[in-house]
Hints:
Elements: H1 41-52, H2 55-58, E1 71-74, E2 77-80, H3 97-106, H4 121-124, H5 129-140, H6 156-168, H7 183-193, H8 199-202, E3 220-221, E4 227-228, H9 244-253, H10 264-273, H11 278-290, H12 302-307
Antiparallel strand pairs: 1-2, 3-4
Helix pairs in contact: 1-5, 3-5, 7-11, 9-10, 9-11
Amino acid sequence: xxxxxxxxxxxxxxxxxxxxxxxxxxxxxxxxxxxxxxxxxxxxxxxxxxxxxxxxxxxxxxxxxxxxxxxxxxxxxxxxxxxxxxxxxxxxxxxxxxxxxxxxxxxxxxxxxxxxxxxxxxxxxxxxxxxxxxxxxxxxxxxxxxxxxxxxxxxxxxxxxxxxxxxxxxxxxxxxxxxxxxxxxxxxxxxxxxxxxxxxxxxxxxxxxxxxxxxxxxxxxxxxxxxxxxxxxxxxxxxxxxxxxxxxxxxxxxxxxxxxxxxxxxxxxxxxxxxxxxxxxxxxxxxxxxxxxxxxxxxxxxxxxxxxxxx
Length: 311
């Protein structure tokens, strides 16, 4: 049974858009790895925030970092990213730990309004409690910026579609490691399923925008509307012929086995995965290579997904 919080608003409200995807303190900076053993929760949160890699979303052009204001065109309509600095009036400085967890896990703001799934809370739903706490500790240390969140004109069909898509999604709650797998495999699976949110682009969706649970990572459409390829180990359409080193190299600098480089949305993702430590990049590679091959993209054309420059 799908888990939903008790406080799940059904009243008509202007849907507050987009993501609390978390950002590095300096765009492109390499931040301390979680594996370094530091006791500082904010440092661990900074690493996870960098891995989420959404600095381009929450910083408007020539705007203050994290203060929001960027307009994004999404499958659920245009949204404006919110201010996630710790300003108490216009940001999230007045949020409690429970408020933050509710927003991240269930897409529900402290005022009971609901976020569109353009904010990837269906992926953050699986974050472990410690990681949520570390992320909040990091955000709490950012400089507070006073910038009122902008609204966009309501798009009723898109809003309704987003709401139904959320109800159709599986939101199982915090990640549970697979006891039959090793620590490295579980680490890779966790990163892909949560902060990495690879399925957001690489899993096909139905017309409502809900992910297809039977075709996870078998290819989809990225946030720019381009084909995102199958990243299961299918030899024809996926990464079946890639080595672990090939995957690690792509995550580090964007280079594919054919010596071409990814661009578009995936190019932005690589700016984040480049900040991962070597162990985490390898864990992701090990997990992806372990998956069953599926072998087609959401477009119905494996060749299109393979040849896309936007993968």
